[in-house]
Amino acid sequence: MGIQRETAALGNWSSRAYHRRWLLDQASGLFDFFQYRCINPKGGFYDMDDAGRPLDAANPVRGIHSTARMVHCFSIGSLLGRPGSEDIVDHGMNYLWKHHRDATHGGYVWSLNNDGPVDASKQGYGHAFVLLAASSAKTIGHPLADGMLADVTEILNTKFWEEKHGAIAEEFNQDWSPIDGGAYRGQNSNMHLTEALMAAFEATENKTYLDKAESIADLVIRRSAGSVGWRVAEHFNTDWELDKDYRGNEMFRPSGTTPGHWLEWARLVLQLWSLGGKQHDWMPDAAKGLFSQSMSLGWDNHKGGFFYTLDWADTPAKRNKLWWPACEGAGAAHYLNEHVPSDFHEESYRKIWGTIGRFFIDHKNGGWHEELTEDLVPAHTIFPGKGDIYHALQACLIPLFPATGSLTKVIADAGGKI
Questions:
Q1: What pTM, to 2 d.p., does this model score?
Q2: Which of 154, 200, 235, 389 could form a disulfide with 209 if both were Cys (CB 3.0 to 4.6 A apart)?
Q3: 369 catalytically annotated
């Protein structure tokens, strides 16, 4: 059903005062849930259960992406004027620099507990989020930001970046020897690096960051996704040839295709297009194609929510519904509404938020459910609790600011005014 004329005359939801207040309320609720529970006094942050209690209070494993995302999100909180945000940023930056950072071999180890590294591998995914954390912390003047930004940039340039492909390699052992021959290449780490490179460009005005982001997008989206009908391929070999038979980690490298990443790329491509002066004509078309395919193939028209994965016949494979694809869908729909507006994009925006509001937001305990069954009942087959503020917070705040750059940039440009 199309948008009714009298409703459409009121404008998109993102322009309406009530919807904007509602989004800000949801963002405040997320900040409340995490800010006063997350700090581990021994360093890093706790992952929490549904009620907001630490999943392992005694000696939890701290993943680098979780630490870095907290830094990014509470840098946003500081820019908005949320009291206490700088304390979270400082706690996270110190843990990244003094514990995740490998002073012997260079780079940043994947995970730690109180006793030291649990997984000392050097992952492209993790280094992408360190770049994002350092870039975000720089926007609020954290004293470690410049040093960390220079350090992780050097590591990305000298250890991960492969100029012949215009993207990064995936992973190494702690001493930088290859893992399993170094045969795997993945889009997920490169996608998040694209996000971080844009933030680094905005924080430093160094165009080499933007050039690398455009290079990755050209490889992963224009050439690869464009060749398979705007479905983002996840897994590749060393020559960046598609590996449809790859089986990997369910959380970070699930088999088949992942519609949530099509949505995430739809937003990132439009952000990249805007930051690059709208020079690449293929980018808006790619964003529209990625979003259309995700809604057509990935959205459950009967029950709501995005299926986690599809097989290469476009049949739902992992049929559970995760919070982060819904978050990325909301952000992508807003960006499309701003750059290539259509009734379809607005209808999708409302549909996605309707499902989030009814099923993913935990109105009893606070925070958001990270996983639901196909029937939209809370579950924990992949995600054990509530460990992440990043996707949900960004989904709430992206529609409140211009669709032209990273949240840290657009909030700073707006003087924190919503």
A1: 0.97
A2: 200
A3: no
